[in-house]
Design brief:
The structure is a homodimer. The longest helix of chain A is centred in the C-terminal third of the chain and has 21 residues, at 448-468. In chain A, the strands form three sheets. In chain A, strands 1, 2, 3, 4, 5, 14, 15, 16 and 17 form a nine-stranded mixed beta sheet that branches. In chain A, strands 6-7-8-9 form a four-stranded parallel beta sheet, sandwiched between helices. A four-stranded parallel beta sheet of chain A has the order 10-11-12-13. In chain A, a hairpin with a 2-residue loop joins β16 and β17. In chain A, α4 packs parallel to α5 (159-169), α4 packs across α17 (448-468) and α14 (366-373) packs across α15 (375-381). Chain A is built from 17 helices and 17 strands. In chain A, 41% of the residues lie in helices and 23% in strands. At the A-B interface, α4, α11, α13, α16 and α17 of A face α4, α11, α13, α16 and α17 of B.
Chain lengths: 470, 470
């Protein structure tokens, strides 16, 4: 239990206090007890508990321990005894474009700049509407929840619709309204984008699930004035800023040619790192860039699948971690840069890529990789006080995955199991913010059949727009 | 239909003949009709058929076409109407060590030589017995079948037990009895290994599922005399030879230092390529090596997961394919080099690795990758006349995968779907050699509960042997 400062009584302290009081008075009433063969807590001591249980009250975890201890001290309104299963923090996606699920694989095997300019931007301008974003985000949330992702970080258009879907799905989100220097689906000018972003920040201020954010797309798609205005707006509302950073060599070379410094240093000079920021990709960061990001507390979203598939390059993850930068994982968008939202696959890729790239099979251990997908990702988002681990006081964002597949039998180390042998399809139950959202692989908050039907309708109109160019 | 030469009447010709006769006489009786929303045939024209059906008689495919056409011309004893699903050739695993499933992840994050010498060889000498191989192979076959692999290529000890399990599982196998230059679980000397191999070749000669093979482990673990004897033995029985080749830089450097030439050239000089051969890994092949392998018709098993995880390096797959070498995919063993048998993941990795390595997002298209996992793998094994595609006359080795997951909806290109969005868990039904072996994700030939129980027992004894060193 953490020692609370009486002058700054947080919810976490209050829960700890409650816990202390109720245990004195005998068995405490809780909403849920979840049990499993093994729990990976990702707490500060990285405790792994065999025959484990978690007690949940309201939206928060009240206690974690052995099943015997938790059962002795708590009386639960509802139980979920998962048996031969692994209980772990819900996974944290630190970079994605959810609604692009409806563009899944429309353009494979092309370079990022060409992919963006010839395929994605035109397809978006022809197809993206609030309803497109609504159904695309529903499809994405469905896939993410089914594979155990409980927090997602989004950068897209009509972000207020993404926020509505996150609430509907019961999923945690750090959602960034895009600001970009040319006319897009939801704004004709960057000024319009900024105005939209401000309305969005206000609309979702204080939401228990949604952290609204401002998302200037990148240094190469925005003017310095817009970038500065985006930072100022985020700071005025004490919200994070999300941005793509040093994703391709071309971006790096162009910025260096124009400004004499790297994108990370150019953005530093513009003050973009003065406040919570999450930078996606960071493929071409050099040692000085890494020092700056570490000093400014910028979180980095590592996107191995996207960086490999678009041949963008290999991010210096080992160096970033060594410098103390908070690194999370992101599947990016599914329109050609991935093409799914599976964080188990990102874990596997992050590890294998770091090993083959460095020539060192010990580079990135499986524990470090699980950290990136959970508490590390939460830290990159500034949400490590709320999610990313199974500890008393944290929000109850939890996945439970079956261990009855031949692929998960036997295992000798639980982190090795999670990174190298488990898959998204092993996830069986998911809780977000104390609410069960997936049970026995069935979504409880989203209508799967309706979403898949709508996705096929959108497929028809997207394919037609690609054929006709309209 | 293929034109048959009357002087060389093969089974394939006979089936074609039968087909012609029966269609003249009205609807043909068949054992199975399988239908699905879309079929990827991987035939010479790479036909993709919407609303497709396959007619199976005995162990072979009799006809492939639209559901309407197949239904009109055939009367089936049994039907499997899979609905919103993909029908494709069963996947071909060209390199693995199945029984090592019981060692899943015993040693992660170490270099291949250390991994072999400090962990794997000692663990094997303490644990491997015929019963260990039997249960380990059962566990592996269970996992492989559930994820749609219908042919596997194995190199291990007590290979006759692997053959028995392949028959029991109803799975196709190219199974290599190991020959190695130091005492191992099933042979004290290479001579004993060769004698074992000969008995094994005789025992499984003419088996409809098992192609027995000789598997000298590698150039660095066998004398030249043993390597030559292994080749002579394989040729005497007209069977393939399986070997590890140029897996690590160390292997390449050591051989070059000792012999002045690369492993591929040294083995060529020893005559190892005079006869059907499958070389696993090929990470450090140079251009001359590739020319030699192409000229000698050596098949190559590309193992991206293993090569990345052990930091062995990156195989020149694009060059191999360009040179006309038959390349298949292999998950290698699950004891630390992978740690599963999932060929969908190997497809995904092969593509992403080739793209990021070459800096070219167009390197290896998704169609080329599906080829490696099916007909290309079959060609590498010399089995392309029998399996690897859905065409009349071929053995009925077929997978049917559900397309009702949010991850597989929508899609715009079926090869992109298969490589970048589908997973092993989508596989729902599997047929090998005309026999249904997985139905609705349930194994029909193997006892899943008994296998998982036994695997946990072996986990206990393996863990104890690691602790005590005995």
């Amino acid at each position: 239990m953490r020692i609370c400062c009486p002058t700054r009584l947080t919810t976490k302290c209050f829960v700890s206090f409650l816990f202390a009081v109720t245990t004195l008075a005998g068995a405490a009433n809780v909403d849920w007890i979840l049990t499993a063969r093994i729990a990976v807590t990702m707490d500060a001591r990285r405790r792994v508990i065999e025959d484990a249980a978690v007690a949940v009250r309201g939206d928060r975890i009240l206690a974690v321990g052995t099943r015997a201890a938790i059962d002795k001290e708590h009386r639960a309104a509802q139980r979920l005894d998962a048996g031969n299963a692994l209980l772990a923090p819900g996974l944290v996606n630190t970079h994605t474009h959810a609604a692009m699920s409806l563009f899944r694989g429309i353009a494979d095997d092309v370079r990022l700049q060409e992919w963006l300019e010839k395929f994605i931007f035109p397809a978006e301008s022809r197809n993206v509407s609030p309803e497109f974003v609504r159904w695309g985000t529903r499809l994405a949330c469905l896939e993410m929840l089914l594979s155990g992702t409980t927090t997602f970080t989004d950068m897209y258009y009509f972000e207020e619709v993404v926020g509505e879907v996150a609430r509907e799905a019961g999923m945690r989100g750090v959602l960034g309204q895009t600001v970009i220097g040319f006319p897009v689906a939801d704004a004709k000018t960057p000024a319009e984008g900024l105005a939209r972003a401000e309305r969005f920040l206000k609309q979702f201020d204080g939401d228990p699930l949604v952290t609204p954010a401002v998302a200037p797309h990148a240094i190469y798609t925005n003017s310095d004035a817009t970038l500065g205005a985006a930072r100022a707006l985020a700071n005025r509302h004490r919200k994070p800023l999300l941005i793509h950073l040093s994703e391709t060599k071309k971006e790096n070379d162009d910025v260096r040619r124009a400004r004499g410094v790297s994108p990370a240093r150019a953005l530093d000079a513009l003050g973009l790192w003065n406040g919570r920021a999450v930078a996606a990709h960071g493929v071409w960061l050099d040692d000085t860039d890494i020092e700056i990001l570490a000093a400014r507390g910028v979180g980095v979203a590592h996107c191995p699948a996207s960086n490999m598939k678009l041949a963008s390059g290999i991010a210096p993850v080992v160096k970033l971690l060594k410098a103390g930068v908070a690194v999370g994982l992101g599947p990016d968008g599914p329109a050609g840069s991935n093409n799914d939202f599976d964080l188990w696959e990102e874990m596997d890729l992050a590890g294998k890529l770091a090993k083959v790239h460095s020539g060192d099979p010990a580079a990135l251990t499986s524990r470090q990789i699980v950290e990136m997908a959970t508490i590390g990702g939460a830290r990159a988002l500034g949400l490590d006080g709320e999610t990313g681990s199974i500890e008393p006081g944290k929000r109850a964002d939890i996945l439970i995955a079956a261990l009855d597949h031949p692929r998960t039998t036997p295992f000798y180390d639980v982190y090795s199991l999670m990174v190298w042998a488990m898959k998204g399809s092993d996830v069986r139950h998911v809780m977000v913010n104390g609410k069960l959202v997936v049970r026995d692989r069935k979504p409880l908050t989203l209508d799967s059949a309706a979403i898949l039907k709508k996705a096929l309708e959108y497929r028809g109109s997207v394919a037609a727009s690609l054929r006709t160019g309209r």
